[in-house]
Design goal:
alpha/beta, about 600 residues, 5-stranded parallel sheet
Length: about 600
């Protein structure tokens, strides 16, 4: 039983015995004792004064005396004004530790019966995945795993933006300058090849704009009338009207990109339960646009375009269909939202999308509400900050992004270089070394990104992320390997231990109590992180646990302990720490090596 629940239960008994009152559990307030006071947990006495009819100090003292007399798990107490600070005995901590060890589902919260869909990645097929996508992907994956640990049924989905003006730009540039180049003929990954043509289109477009401006055309007009842009718009119109030649080119170039994306997802260890394609869903919203027109909440302009006026709601007018009948992003999002809630009866739909789209999702929910869909309140935009580099923001069309594949390779090389410098690979075969470098590089990348609160903009530094000291993935990975090394050495000496090694009366150091407290916090951290949709809670918890272990290991003899019973107890404690570290980092998609 967790400390706060234990105290509430005993305090209810105390109040009943002392004052003859049956107080509901929710009326009791328990919190961790502040560092400047002695105690483990604090009971707030003020809400109980109406039944005690005594001063806060007298009430706290009376309850404290009763607890000390009637609960062997409580060793002492002190009262500071209206706060009863309670210290637990070793009996309590040992019983708590044993309950953790014997709970085979420790950290996995009970099933809720709720179904949650998490949409993440959602790349455009005109460029390879980059560092910004990586934050999105890693957040989406770890949030999904975190919600599973909270007892929800979770569906991880990807919506590939495989149509629209962006892909037409890459297609047009390939037609103009590609000379039939393919991934096979160039030796490039397909997503990289198509991305090169997106940059090529932008270069061609800028040149045309500059020429029009030089001929006397105003800048704004030149940007709208550049020949290549008009050709791309014509190509989009052809695609939406099923032109065979345009569709065939679209299929070919997208197939290159899909193969490239799949390789990057595989390297990151990411999978999806279902992948949607914009080309298959963009028409879904058109029926809702007609519904909105019939309901009178949308209006059609003279040029044929359809709008929703949200000015009365403090927002703006929102375009839903262009004058030529082609859809925009929100048209599709309206349709896919209706499709998904109808098909899966979702309790929550989480969109993992950068904070530059905050307005978009505010509008999406509002329009769905106007259309009569009450489930619109169950849409949650997991809005995250951008990833920046020391040199500033990234721009895809200018080719100044940090490519995901290049980053993974750089992280691997950095992990290899750091491991070699520190001598971490002694007695490892080449294949073992390769596996370790990949494990460390992914652990460094994932942890460095996930440990930051999603809402915050972050600065990414590959070298800092791979450090074996400090708040990094490799520090946690090395901690786990250190624990496993100790346990292997114990096994080699024939030292056997199990839950029977935990005696209720084992004397505990302050650091051992601190470790048991931290272990007990894990389920609460799962709940906290799930409620906040923030895997950063779990990442930083794992670091705190690893850091506390290392301090304990530095000050406490493990294998040198001469008391056999205490040695086995400590080995059991280490085994529990390693197990919780594995559970926590598994939520983050990070593997912990057995040895380093």
């Amino acid at each position: 039983m967790s400390p706060d629940i234990f105290i509430v239960e005993k305090a209810r008994q105390a109040v009943s015995s002392l004052y003859g009152a049956d107080i509901p559990a929710e009326s009791f307030q328990v919190q961790v004792t502040r560092k400047e006071f002695e105690g483990d947990y604090t009971l707030v006495v003020f809400p109980l004064l109406k039944v005690s009819r005594q001063s806060p100090e007298a009430t706290g003292t009376a309850i404290g005396d009763w607890l000390k007399e009637n609960a062997a798990e409580i060793s002492s107490y002190n009262v500071v004004k209206g706060f009863l600070n309670i210290s637990f005995s070793e009996l309590y901590w040992n019983r708590l530790f044993l309950s953790i060890l014997t709970d085979e589902h420790f950290g996995q919260l009970p099933p809720t019966g709720k179904t949650v869909m998490v949409e993440f990645s959602s790349p455009n097929t005109n460029k390879p995945l980059h560092l910004g996508h990586i934050r999105n992907i890693l957040l989406g994956w770890s949030v999904s795993r975190l919600l599973e640990a909270n007892g929800h049924r979770v569906m991880k989905v990807n919506l590939v933006n495989d149509r629209g003006i962006h892909i037409c730009k890459s297609m047009l540039a390939w037609l103009k300058t590609g000379n039939g180049e393919t991934p096979e003929s160039s030796g490039k990954k397909g997503d990289h090849l198509v991305g090169d043509y997106y940059v090529a289109f932008n270069n061609l477009y800028r040149k045309e704009v500059d020429e029009l401006i030089a001929s006397g055309m105003p800048k704004e007009e030149a940007e709208k009338n550049a020949p290549s842009l008009k050709q791309a718009q014509e190509m989009l119109f052809k695609w939406e009207n099923g032109d065979e030649e345009t569709v065939a080119l679209w299929k070919k170039m997208n197939s290159w990109v899909y193969a490239g994306f799949d390789k990057t997802y595989e390297d990151l260890g990411i999978t999806f339960d279902r992948t949607y394609y914009e080309s298959q869903t963009y028409l879904l919203g058109k029926a809702l646009v007609q519904k909105g027109l019939d309901m009178g909440i949308f209006e059609r302009e003279a040029d044929g375009s359809v709008w929703c006026d949200l000015t009365a709601d403090g927002l703006d007018r929102k375009l839903l269909l262009r004058g030529d009948g082609t859809s925009v992003y929100i048209t599709q999002d309206l349709g896919t939202a209706e499709q998904r809630f109808s098909e899966y009866h979702l309790d929550e739909h989480i969109y993992v999308v950068g904070n530059e789209q905050n307005y978009h999702f505010q509008v999406l929910k509002l329009i769905l509400k106007k259309l009569g869909f009450d489930w619109a309140d169950n849409i949650y935009h997991l809005s995250y900050g951008m990833v920046e580099l020391p040199e500033g923001k990234m721009k895809s069309r200018e080719g100044t992004v940090v490519d995901a594949d290049d980053l993974l390779e750089k992280m691997y090389n950095t992990a290899k270089e750091t491991s070699l410098e520190l001598g971490k690979i002694d007695n490892m075969s080449d294949s073992e070394q390769d596996g370790l470098f990949r494990t460390l590089s992914l652990g460094a990348l994932k942890y460095f990104i996930i440990k930051v609160d999603p809402k915050k903009t972050m600065l990414f530094d590959p070298k800092e992320s791979i450090d074996f000291n400090g708040n990094t993935g490799p520090f946690i990975q090395y901690t786990h390997a250190r624990i496993k090394s100790i346990l292997r050495k114990a096994a080699e000496r024939g030292i056997a231990f199990d839950t029977t090694s935990v005696d209720e009366h084992t004397p505990l150091s302050a650091k051992e109590i601190r470790l048991i407290k931290l272990l007990d916090m894990y389920p609460g951290k799962i709940a906290e992180g799930g409620q906040a949709h923030s895997p950063a809670v779990i990442a930083n918890y794992a670091y705190d646990l690893a850091k506390e272990f290392n301090q304990y290991y530095h000050d406490t003899p493990i294998l040198k302990e001469e008391d056999a019973a205490l040695l086995k107890y400590r080995l059991m404690l280490l085994s529990a720490i390693a197990g919780v570290l594995v559970k926590a980092t598994d939520i983050l998609g990070i593997r912990l090596p057995e040895r380093m």
